[in-house]
Amino acid sequence: MAPANAAPTQVQDGLVNVAVGDVTILQDVNIGVAAQVAANVCGVKVGPVAVLGRAVDRSGTTTLVCDSAQGPVRLIQN
């Protein structure tokens, strides 16, 4: 039996959320789709954003993609 205060297990499911400012614009989407949308908003290449998305899915750490006119664009573990 696990201790009651054990940290939840991080599940790598290939899905992340995309937030712009205080609004989640995509929820539980494939990393590739999230990377395309975030890259489009930020005006950057998709490849490096996809790498960030995979890292977010693995670690659970929220990652800033860029600061846009609408607010920070972030990838968040779902």
Structural class: alpha+beta
Count of beta strands: 4
Describe the sheet with the most strands: 4 strands, antiparallel
Order of strands in the sheet with most strands: 2-1-4-3
Based on the structure, what is the oligomeric state of the protein chains? single chain
Tally of DSSP helical segments:
2
Rg from C-alpha positions? 13 Å
Label the overall shape.
globular
Helical content class = 25-40%
Give a quick summary of the entry:
By secondary structure, the chain is α+β, with helices and mostly antiparallel strands. The chain is 33% helix and 35% strand. The mean pLDDT is 90.
Keywords:
four-stranded antiparallel sheet; alpha+beta; 33% helix; 78 residues; globular
Compile the SSE list and pairings.
Blueprint: E1 15-20, E2 23-30, H1 31-42, H2 46-59, E3 63-68, E4 71-77
Antiparallel strand pairs: 1-2, 1-4, 3-4
How would you sum up this structure, described in words?
The chain has two helices and four strands; from the N terminus they run ββααββ. The chain has 78 residues and is of the alpha+beta class. Strands 2-1-4-3 form a four-stranded antiparallel sheet. β3 and β4 (71-77) form a beta hairpin. The chain starts with 14 loop residues before the first strand and ends with a strand.
